[in-house]
């Protein structure tokens, strides 16, 4: 197949630190090339990929150089989408895969080939629902059944779990003696509850992740005020290699969600490292964590503390096998290939 891949444009491609959408799209793009497909990636200049690269922005939006006029994100996203549409209108593609929220949907009826969209959970934002409602008959791929519940009235052609390169995460023995929280330091992620779990379990905890400007006050009050460098330690926003070591040495990763997250890359990265996950019963976590096998699904802090007592019964090798079997790049890639073929073979529906 000849596939046009419309990448997100905020972070470096692939990212060195934060950038979950970029990481998934990068892995999928290279996975499709490995499978023998002809892929053209529309992404910012400087992107690294095995596909053919069409540069649509001079820099990722989050890395715009100082001294230049600050970018208007919507303007550059429109340029990005228009460049893709122009190239695809000239022919040479069988399908377009958009990872750019709802914004490209307005072009879909004007393009000569179908466009499938992965929303990456953005349907939680009700402000975009009018666009989803208008273009509901175009093909969508969900990351989980939980994601479908965010906006059920779409033409979902498949559910494809995100994948992870298991080779980037060496299996560890969990001999670091600490719990780990990995993710954005944001209220909906509730790192303060991960700290509470650790304190009540009598264990140290390390916290890794990005602090966004809008959540600086939350971080300062809920996380930084509790750190002491030993029992509670914030280690910053780490690259994949550093994070892999933290995963492998952790007793468990704690995911105390306050929202119905449609996936959770932290979960599958942890499992790839052989580390079980204790997650709240929210969003996609019950789909990703096999309770009593690769971790535990709990409802609150006492449930998480109780689950820690049962960790010795879990096989870390089974966590790794589960990641390889259910969440590898190859599995994700094959899922999307099947979805592309289904879309190409099905007759188009009125927009």
Features:
34% helix; globular; 351 residues; six-stranded parallel sheet; seven-stranded parallel sheet; alpha/beta; 12 helices; single chain
- Structural class estimated from helices and strands: alpha/beta
Query: Which percent band covers the strand fraction?
Result: 15-25%
Number of separate helices = 12
Quick one: biggest sheet? 7 strands, parallel
Contiguous runs where pLDDT drops below 50 for at least 5 residues = none
- What best-fitting shape do the alpha-carbon axes yield? globular
- Read across the widest sheet, the strand sequence of neighbours is 3-2-1-4-5-6-7
Number of strands: 13
Distance between the termini: 24 Å
Order of helices and strands: EHEEHEEHEHEEHEHEHEHEHEHHH
What share of residues is helical? 25-40%
Instruction: Give the oligomeric state of the chains in this entry, treating copies of one chain as homo and distinct chains as hetero.
Output: single chain
Mean pLDDT, nearest integer?
95
Radius of gyration: 20 Å
